[in-house]
Amino acid sequence: MGAQLRVYKRRIRSVSATKKITKAMEMIAASRVVKAQRKVAASTPYATELTRAVSAVATGSNTKHPLTTESENPTRAAVLLLTSDRGLAGAFNSNAIKTAEQLTERLEREGKQVDTYIVGRRGVAHYNFRERKIAESFTGFTDDPSYADAKKVAAPLIEAIEKETANGGVDELHIVYTEFVSMMTQTALGARLLPLSLDDVAKEAAPKGDEILPLYDFEPSAEDVLDALLPRYVESRIYNALLQSAASKHAATRRAMKSATDNAGDLIESLTRLANAARQADITQEISEIVGGASALADATAGSDY
Q: Which residue, 104, 141, 176, 198, shows the most beta carbons closer than 10 Å to its own?
């Protein structure tokens, strides 16, 4: 039984060390999610005002532009998938990947060729393992994305939307990311960035019922204004999605590490009980051996008196 007790003690030390690591990771994730939430809140006013500007141009002119004009026969679409560079976040990455695959299947059923762009090593690894084609990938910044990172991701997508499909361009741009709802809830969803739906733009630009007047004068022209707004709009939306995904990932990591820490504590309690039982069995066995030896000695002594 002594050997069994040593095994339990060794496992308790191992699980205790793991518990310290998961607890530290939980605290780090909790700190990071707060910072990410602040960045999401800080980016919202800019995105809102930019959406107002897009709405003003879109509703105040008849200019045809890739930002607002639906293709009569869309044949090609780009899907941007946002995952993380690291794991240990529960179902965070798998949910985003599943949503992207469902979106891709729907677009392909509609007869569209899909070009997949991926942010995050987890998404890249998933597609590479299954030998699926990736148009372009971006890694190394998912935990704390900056606006410069968003511009880097947006550049090839803007170039693709501005090209003719015959020259490798796309008719539609979709994004799949994880929306941060709360510390306990994060939802993977897909949204179409381009071309914009004017109804959706109006709702985003006037969430409190503000009226958007349709009469504007544009200098030098509405088309030039839209050309200037296109990259800014795509970059701001991608930046906001990156921040949402980062906050969601940290929240998922915090929740996963808390669960791991709690499970480690439960395992330590279980192993401690087993170790105590093994120690008690050792003590009981030793007492039995002592009593048995004493009884044998007494019997031997009594026999020698005759």
A: 176
- Phi and psi, residue 197, nearest 5°: -85, 125
Contacts of 267 (CB under 8 A, 6+ apart): 15
User: What gap in Å lies between CA 38 and CA 41, rounded to an integer?
Assistant: 5
pLDDT tens for each residue of 243-296:
999 999 999 999 899 989 999 999 999 888 888 888 887 777 778 777 777 777
- Closest to 40 measured CA to CA, from 267, 245, 285, 207: 245
Q: Which of 1-10, 185-194, 196-205, 254-263 has the lowest mean pLDDT?
A: 196-205
Report the distance separating Cα 285 and Cα 287, nearest Å: 5
pTM: 0.81
Q: Which residues contact 125 (CB under 8 A, 6 or more apart)?
A: none
Confidence of residue 212 (pLDDT cuts 50, 70, 90): very low
Distances (CA, A) of 299 to 123, 292, 295, 304: 77, 11, 6, 9
Output the six-digit token pair for 234. 């795509």
